[in-house]
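Following up on my earlier thread - several people asked me to post the actual chain instead of describing it. Fair enough. Here it is, all 270 residues.
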Amino acid sequence: MSGRNTSELQVLCSSGQLFLQPFWDRLRTWEALTQSPFFPAFFSITTYMGFCLPFVVLDLLCPWVPALRRYKIHPNSWPTARQLVPCLGQTLYQHLLFVFPVTLLYWARAPALLPPEAPALLQLLCHIGLCLLLFDAEFFLWHVLHHKVPWLYRTFHKMHHENSPSFALATQYVSVWELFSLGFFDMVNVMLLDCHPLTVLAFHVVNIWLAVEDHSGYDFPWSTHRLVPFGWYGGVAHHDLHHSQFSCNYAPYFTHWDKLWGTLRSAQAK
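Reply from S.P.:
Thanks for posting it. Predicted structure:
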């Protein structure tokens, strides 16, 4: 029976690999781009801006389209140009002066060849889930520490709380230390799990989207926290409470750490 289960699992993994292989083969034809030292910074900034742009458009339309306000957590508040421009400038500045040099050094130290085989679909999904859980735990501890220690908060984290209510482009309005801390967690997790390069790309896409959604200020019927059952995922309303009350909801995504720490507060109790 055990041998049969093992055989079925191997067939399932093989099928998942065949599912992703055509896409991976196509992606490998762009190896000159993906292996370029410019690619990590380019990928990060374009993915981030691509996810922010729809919410920026919605924020610009909100004053003129009242129907959109029903989905805003703060229906009578939207960012001004004086808020949007510094956030955009900070993101571009940090990617140019800090993210790109670091990724360039990493590329020069250990340029990696892309494997010919795609990961199995089940493996990709499991690794993304594990990376998110690890990142959630790491950032929870980092976040609590940088709120509980006044010097850490003033020096490194206060900048992120300057825009309240939050909005999409404020997601990466952070200090250099915070930016590198989050990047370090990302890098350590994918290395710890020995993730396939395709899994790494997929995890970064998911992680950037969830972070932008959490800061967007929009609570749609299809928002992630409405799709995940049992209240396991906090989502935008959960994180918005953190930005308005500071002493609750420290975990970026899931709710179990705040439950254990006694810092969970639901949006309904606001």
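Residues 81-109 form the longest helix (29 residues). That should answer part of your original question.
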